[in-house]
User: Which sequence fits this backbone?
């Protein structure tokens, strides 16, 4: 029975994989999902800090010529307290000495021997207060985020050099079909190269999973059963590509049943990707994805990527934007929710790409997004807003 | 002399690093820059292909009951030509047999023994024509693209299992300052942890470069000279962080001069990041980046990332969008082009983040973009459009 995309998504969203967590070196953590709140073990700034290179003195003395009583490089501590009529020459990042509550910039100062005069007009104190950015115990990075390069400085600052991250989900991939040869081989008559499995592996890696490729299952039920059964025992989520439509050799549904997989849906009203199948066995999940590379790419993005990231505790959501269509769009039938490869141009307009159908593999490299054409809609006018999901 | 950001960018854009190219396994290629046009060695489809599971016959016969003369699994070739009143049962992806010019779907067919009748009404032939997607010799992926998972199926399809990609630029990083301790250590009085170098390494990796961290240069000119000279000989672009403002220990400019580096600019009217310095020595380039982590992050994104990707032959451009401001923005002075950390919310509105200045490191993890506040502008009203650059 064909179900709506939203229903299928709801069914899939009830399932996730239990994954543990592990500590990794923080420099290996970008792309991983943070599995703990990271708290600071220090104050930032750790002390009242000079925000500029200059002279630290008492605010009431800034009109006077001042005696320079010491030089404070960053990383050292003042030896003296700044008294009346005095100042300390201080470098950016150094701790402001006792007695001082004002730092004027070296650019606004005239130095003569061991004396200096402030020539500027600003009354800004140029002091970054102790703990104004971070206090000891503050959460600086929250559990569930996908770690980015811009989180690295925060981790370094608070000494979180081995953050706890979710273990990678193990995603297995099996291709099916006697017509397939591996990419390094030249296809013979009636054959094509296996492209889906490799694309799914690359998509799995981008989603933060560990990908295991199990090879091509031939058009032989027993051999396919053995491959599927073996794979199910060795991964968290198994992706099968091909073999789920209605041909005589499409015995994948029967093989899954024989492996003890309970099928939760096997036809979804989406285009491309109608025969997408989802099932569960013990703690493993299985997707039967269509054999066409555009379909399998899209179905992975719609179902598998969110599931992988959710299982790892991520708050990831697809990046979907409402943008105007560059020229009118038309399709013949509106019985499925369509995801159409589009390119968002420099003016934020949506260009529908030349796309012959779900096997039209070279439509994807040019695409920057998938335009959603709702159920029942067959025409969208130029300039109308559409939902575009980044890919 | 302080120059405008646009001038600085123009100066930097005149320079690039000569990098070679290398063949890599296609599964290791995502994120790399493609250094050749990839052409197809096959037609896709390689033959007139059944787009559905069904029955291949002559279009003029579709009203008749037809004799099934053979079964054609995908990957095999028909043994017979389809004659008048005949058809072949055919699987998705198999080559349509000679004589046939129409395939009707198994879902729209009633089979009785070795005979079948088409019960549907569609006149669509369900045949994907030979070479309709790709012809032999067609360019399927263009030189200069950053390879994505969605390119992998195309590479697999055309057998490009070892694409030629640009060699990674070698980016060296040196931190400066006696106040720094490494992230694994607890800072003593007056000290802070080194966060910039690690962030720059993570940014370099994201930009597709190879990153080499050379350590912390102490506040000692000779030692700093030795470290910089050694690093310059071992990387394509050297990033120094800290030591470029005006303190007594900021001898980085002098060290660079002594190493034979020709300084092209050393002050840019941007906020944060005014003391950003750029120079060249033989075939190497050097950036002196500010010691504050937000400044150094931003300056890397503005200058280094485009330079790295351009050097590797990429057509990458920053993703900049015009979006409406969620609430009014004000700043004291308009003498620099500002890049302010912002978060784009679910309604595509720009929220300016609480941001204490260039050392306020925890403003970055929450940011999804940098809002550009032009030179001379100190106020922007709620709802006004601003340029936001994704980070």
Assistant:
């Amino acid at each position: 029975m064909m179900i709506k995309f939203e229903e299928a998504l709801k069914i899939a969203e009830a399932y996730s994989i239990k994954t543990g967590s592990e500590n990794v070196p923080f420099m290996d953590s970008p792309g991983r999902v943070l599995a703990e709140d990271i708290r600071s073990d220090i104050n930032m700034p750790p002390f009242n800090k000079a925000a500029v290179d200059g002279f630290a003195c008492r605010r009431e003395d800034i009109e006077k010529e001042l005696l320079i009583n010491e030089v404070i490089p960053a990383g050292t501590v003042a030896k003296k307290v700044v008294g009346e009529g005095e100042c300390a020459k201080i470098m950016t990042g150094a701790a402001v000495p006792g007695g001082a509550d004002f730092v004027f910039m070296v650019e606004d100062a005239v130095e003569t021997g061991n004396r200096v005069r402030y020539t500027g007009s600003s009354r800004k104190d140029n002091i970054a207060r102790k703990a104004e950015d971070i206090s000891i115990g503050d959460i600086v990075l929250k559990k569930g985020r996908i770690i980015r390069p811009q989180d690295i400085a925060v981790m370094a600052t608070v000494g979180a050099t081995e953050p706890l991250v979710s273990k990678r989900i193990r995603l297995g991939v099996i291709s099916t079909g006697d017509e397939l040869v591996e990419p390094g081989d030249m296809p013979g008559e009636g054959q094509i190269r296996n492209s889906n499995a490799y694309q799914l592996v690359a998509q799995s890696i981008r989603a933060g999973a560990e990908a295991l490729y199990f090879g091509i299952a031939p058009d032989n039920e027993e051999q396919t059963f053995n491959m599927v059964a073996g794979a199910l025992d060795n991964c968290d989520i198994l992706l099968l590509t091909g073999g789920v439509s209605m041909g005589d050799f499409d015995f994948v549904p029967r093989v899954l049943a024989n492996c003890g997989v309970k099928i939760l849906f096997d036809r979804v009203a989406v285009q491309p990707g109608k025969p997408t199948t989802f099932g569960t066995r013990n703690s493993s999940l299985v997707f039967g994805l269509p054999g066409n590379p555009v379909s399998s790419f899209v179905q992975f993005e719609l179902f598998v990527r969110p599931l992988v990231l959710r299982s790892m505790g991520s708050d990831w959501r697809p990046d979907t934007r409402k943008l105007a269509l560059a020229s009118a769009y038309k399709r013949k039938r509106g019985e499925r929710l369509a995801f159409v490869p589009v390119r968002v141009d420099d003016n934020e307009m949506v260009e529908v790409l030349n796309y012959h159908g779900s096997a039209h593999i070279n439509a994807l490299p040019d695409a920057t997004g998938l335009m959603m054409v709702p159920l029942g809609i067959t025409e969208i006018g130029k300039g109308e807003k559409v939902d575009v999901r980044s890919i």
Summary: Chain A has a mean pLDDT of 93.
